[in-house]
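Translate sequence into structure tokens.
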Amino acid sequence: MIEKLSFETDGQGLYEITGPLQEIAARTAAAEGVCTVFVQHTSASLTIQENADPSARHDLAAWLERLVPENDPQVTHTAEGPDDMPSHIKAALTATSLTIPIIDGRLALGTWQGVYLWEHRRRPHRRRVVVHITG
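Result follows.
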């Protein structure tokens, strides 16, 4: 089963998408299987991260911002602004797809795990995510 989802972002940050993914897993007949999630963009990514304390996501985003800052004088790809190439680097350093086991018809995430769409651009975007469930 393949489903395509669309998410609106308000700019940089981690947006939890666990709920819609769990709903898709529940609609399938797969008691056991695999869920593959893929973001169709080069300036956004996916991650599984703590979903209880927002400070963990804040610290993660701040760390990546320090690692890949804007206005690097060696960056030449700036057609869409100073966050253009840094967003591509951040996506390259993180993940554009995730594979999550399905057990008993649910994503086999740990107690404090959530699936996040990670927007690396400063301005709002509509991001497309493809979900493929087998089992």
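Note: The chain has a mean pLDDT of 96.
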